[in-house]
Amino acid sequence: MISTDKKFGYPLWRLLFLLQFLLLCLFTGWNSGEASAAAQKPVWVPVEQGIERGLESFLQRAFAKAEQQGADLVILHIDTPGGEIGAASSIGQLIRQAPMRVVAYIDNQAYSAGTYIALHADEIVMTPGSFIGAATPIDLAGNAADIKILSAWSQQMETAAALNGRDPQIARAMVQIEMNLPGLKEPGSVLALDAEKAKAVGYADQLVNNVNELYQHLGVAGAQVQAIEPTLGETIARFVTSPLVMSVLLIIGLAGIAVELFAPGFGIAGGLSLCAFGLYFFGHLMAGYAEWFHLGLFLIGLLLMVLELFVPGMIVGLIGFVCMISGLALAAYDIRQGLLALALAMLITVIVAVVLAKIYGIRGFWRKLILEDAQRNEAGYVAAKDQRELLGQHGLALTPLRPAGIVNIQGMRVDAVSQGAYIEPGSSVIVVQVEGARVVVSKANSKGEGE
Asked: How far apart are the first and last CA of the chain?
């Protein structure tokens, strides 16, 4: 029987109901918080220094690892002066296809190709004093790129800006020097935005003072963030695959071979050459651009070049040279870039060989390529006299011609040969043919004509 005592019954049931409600809310809230914490799996990925193919390879691994770990947020720490357009394009595509949210965090600079990468992120966060923009492409010599490249890059920048609702004209102004953008840029200048201006024009979504404020803005705890750093091999690959370093390695490699062929047995030049080629192939293999076939082709060529030192002729060496060059060019991330670097390296190698020849003379393998013997009068060499003026002249055989002998023509003793017939000494002869130093005579008849 239920008590109806007003003093204890009604308040007791109310108290029990309230307690049950509070426990239910607490339990639900606790589980909700736990699920929210579990869902937060942020990953920190550095995009630093130059943008090149080695960085592209690292980012491919980083995004694949983040997806494998179930990360729902990738923070790209961008601090770069720019780099290769081709690598930036591939990285932009990688970000577009990423299944998780991507935030670009810029605390220093994101110029040129770095701007293009940042524009692909779902959100751009900058710190005061940082910059974005200045995306005009230049070549290796520091000159403005070709108009076709400039136009294509402008379109790529506009498309990247439009992905997340940013003004494409601002992106274009970061590329086109002569473009006028009132209030932001005058013709003849390059548009670069500081953090405050970027925020004002929509090229930065949030400003923070430091990483802690970034985490607070994103709603994550610092302890939750897992950093994915490049491995030692990837760091070396990034260094080696940059165009400048790649060219230097090829120059050292080819010049070292030239020195070894110039003075076999010296050793140091050959060792430097092998180290340079080793770094070249290691970096490109790590970056995923070279295959073992390319390395094998190069090694076969190198062995054939060594074999040329012991085998007469040039065929083996020529085949070896072609194999080496093919292996090096195919291993590069771009065959055209590889061939350009090889052309520069071969030009410098020829200069090195010429300088060494001037200093030390012709030695080793190069003896097979260059005629060394000088035909000097002091050494007994006498140039053959042009005797075409003797054609049709008459003379007298001083010795028997069977068929070679000596004849007297206009008081000169001349070595001559008959046309095949025997000519006795004292016979009249006539010159019927002259080929260089070879004088051909025939016995003259009574009319002074050749028989």
From this structure: 162
